[in-house]
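fyi for ur records
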Amino acid sequence: MRLTAYALVADPSFLAASLRAYYDHVDRIVLSYDATSTSWTGTPLPVEECLAVIKELDTAGKCEHAPGDYASPGTAPLDAETHQRQEALDAASQEADWVLQLDTDEVMLRPAAFLASLGRAEKAGAAALDYPSRWLYARVAPGRYLEASRRFGRPAASYPGPLAVRAGTRLTHARQVDGPLYRVDLGPWSTDPARPRDAIVHEVVRPEDAVLHFSWVRRPEAMRQKFGWSGHTAHYSRPGVYERWEHRTRHPRRAALTSPLRRQEWYRLVTVPEPPGGEP
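which gave:
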């Protein structure tokens, strides 16, 4: 299979670790960013910092710059995100069979497991690969994290969108697509709290094989910036969201121990490898 990827260049936090994980396995990486370093919501983005990181790791010259006009303060952020992703995907689809669409805070720990699943998705005739992420909420110590879980600390799969799609795919909303998905999960029954337990599972992998999504793993100042530029800024700006994150970061054991008492938002304390190039 001919593999390419695209990356939305905006957040330097885990950028190097994310790209390095799959760099050797793709032919090209399309770098999509706003030419004025402005987010979908109109806030400034550290694009130049990101490009400096990428320049240092792009030893084989695989990265292709694709700047555009993506600042859309009057547009729903997720609609603006879909537009930018589609343009990046179209560019990455040239001379490719499949396109990886990982965000820059998503890190493959075991690329071989991911690529093996992608090969099976290809043989199954799927339109996209729905591969599980583990959603990390906060770093509480080096290698120690609060991770979103099912109730009573059971591992949970998260699916922000297919992490690989066939070249030429049309996106419907952010990373979502129409068409048959090849679904990989952490168990034979769905472990995603957002999906019914009997959702179809084509393949099971270990939690150690999942992609790590360092979604809310940020320093406080970086978290506030992310809340402003994210496609989910409307949710993030609700009263109490930041305050709960800050409180749980300071009191991780309490957050994990009291999780079974809540109807949702369950967390567990886990140890995972620190990605090289991530935040200190």
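The chain has one domain: 3-271. thats all i got for now
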